[in-house]
Amino acid sequence: MLRAAERQNGSMLCVGLDPEPTKFPAAYKGDANKIYDFCARIVDATADLVSSFKPQIAYFAAHRAEGQLERLMEHMRRVAPHVPIILDAKRGDIGSTAEQYAKEAFERYGADAVTLSPFMGWDSVAPYLKYEGKGAFLLCRTSNPGGDDLQNQRLATVEGQPRLYEHIAQLAQGPWNLNGQLGLVVGATYPAEIERVRELAPTLPLLIPGVGAQGGDAVATVKAGWRGHADGSSVGAIIVNSSRAVLYASSGDDFEQAARQVAMQTRDTLEAAKGIKA
Ligand SMILES: O=c1ccn([C@@H]2O[C@H](COP(=O)(O)O)[C@@H](O)[C@H]2O)c(=O)[nH]1
């Protein structure tokens, strides 16, 4: 599905849906009941420019807007049936609870993939993989500075002493990836680590947040993570997320056009970077 959307829209861009009512344009400003309307208009304005959408569940749950998220998922299915939806939930819990989280992501919301913290190990990830055709992106080397605190530590107990994020990449590329359902989250703010993860996980899709508001370098991201085929696709896909820079490109009545403009520029920058040699 990801490959098809990438081809159809000529894009590696994921638009992140992080609705924050205080940042909405004047007509919706401060109104949590307008979360669906705002996000649906962003989806309509960008659906032909993206390879995926990524709603972040906290922005809905914080406003008791889970019902609006359900409606938004249905809307995305209707207007962009070819575009995969990654539910950014960053779940991670013991198996029995993980079964409930998996049901929430894939049955309640109908997401195509979900983000997970691998911190609790294999049995916390396995329940998601029982859903055939669905994917899970494991946090590996996240975009925030605090990601260093644990993810960059070396594992003295593992031969060759890889760092924790390298070990996660190896597990996801190898023994944990029973049916090819896993991908990894790696921050655009750390291109050297994207390159390292790509070495360790050559075929996995990488979800890469951090361009736009967090200042990650779009060109460096593509150089580090994209490994091209002649047909323009990557051996392991990259999905480059931008949320706030697109959503809040304008606080005026022109917010949809402004969001479209930024999404188009970002998509074009990413596509052009495929041709730039290191
Ligand atoms: O390492 C990570 C993992 C997830 N995120 C999420 O991506 C978006 C980024 O939003 P921007 O506005 O483009 O900065 C947001 O939903 C995060 O929760 C991340 O940033 N880094």
UniProtKB/TrEMBL annotation:
Q: In which pathway does it act?
A: Pyrimidine metabolism; UMP biosynthesis via de novo pathway; UMP from orotate: step 2/2
Pfam families assigned: OMPdecase
Q: Name one GO biological process term.
A: 'de novo' UMP biosynthetic process
Keyword Lyase applies: yes
- The protein's Enzyme Commission number: 4.1.1.23
What keywords appear on the UniProt entry?
Answer: Decarboxylase, Lyase, Pyrimidine biosynthesis
Name of the protein this chain belongs to: Orotidine 5'-phosphate decarboxylase
Q: Which organism is it from?
A: Limnohabitans planktonicus II-D5
Gene name linked to the record: pyrF
